[in-house]
Amino acid sequence: MKTIAVNLDVKKIDKTKLYVGKKGTYLDAVVFLKDEADEYGNHGFIVQSVTKEEREKGVKGEILGNVKILGNSQSQQDKAQPQEAEDGLPF
């Protein structure tokens, strides 16, 4: 599993895009990840989602902030897999 930190500028959120659900108030957003970190250690950014109609008109979502991949941790299933020896045999 990867741990990702998100840094949002909430002042940039278009409040008309907030909607109420069963357990709270929500905002749809999209995270874009790059293969390499930039000069500030950011691995991508997060934008506010736009509707299909808005996308077709060329509207782009507001960039709300940056994302950083903090690290990886192996899942329990990965840890349970036997390690192969250098000759390719599992023993």
Topology:
Blueprint lengths: L1 E7 L10 E2 L4 E2 L2 E5 L10 E5 L3 H5 L6 E10 L3 H5 L11
Antiparallel strand pairs: 1-6, 2-3, 4-5, 5-6
Brief account:
The chain is mainly beta. The protein has helices spanning 52-56, 76-80, and strands at residues 2-8, 19-20, 25-26, 29-33, 44-48, 63-72. It has a 4-stranded antiparallel β-sheet with strand order 1-6-5-4, with no helix packed on it.
Characterize the structure shown.
With 91 residues, the chain is mainly β. The chain has one domain (2-75). It has two helices and six strands, in the order βββββαβα. The chain has helices spanning 52-56, 76-80, and strands at residues 2-8, 19-20, 25-26, 29-33, 44-48, 63-72. The protein has a four-stranded antiparallel beta sheet, with no helix packed on it. A two-stranded antiparallel ribbon has the order 2-3. A hairpin with a 4-residue loop joins strand 2 and strand 3 (25-26). The longest helix has 5 residues, at 52-56. The protein is elongated and about 60 Å long. The two termini are 27 Å apart.
Characterize the largest beta sheet: strand count, sense, and whether it forms a barrel.
4 strands, antiparallel
Strand content: 25-35%
When the domains are counted, the total is 1
Strand order of the largest sheet: 1-6-5-4
Number of strand elements: 6
Gyration radius from CA atoms, angstroms: 19 Å
> What percentage of residues falls in helices of 4 or more residues?
10-25%
- Alpha-carbon distance between the two ends: 27 Å
Overall pLDDT level: 86
Number of helices: 2
- Which segments are poorly predicted (pLDDT under 50) over 5 or more consecutive residues? none
Oligomeric state of the chains present here: single chain
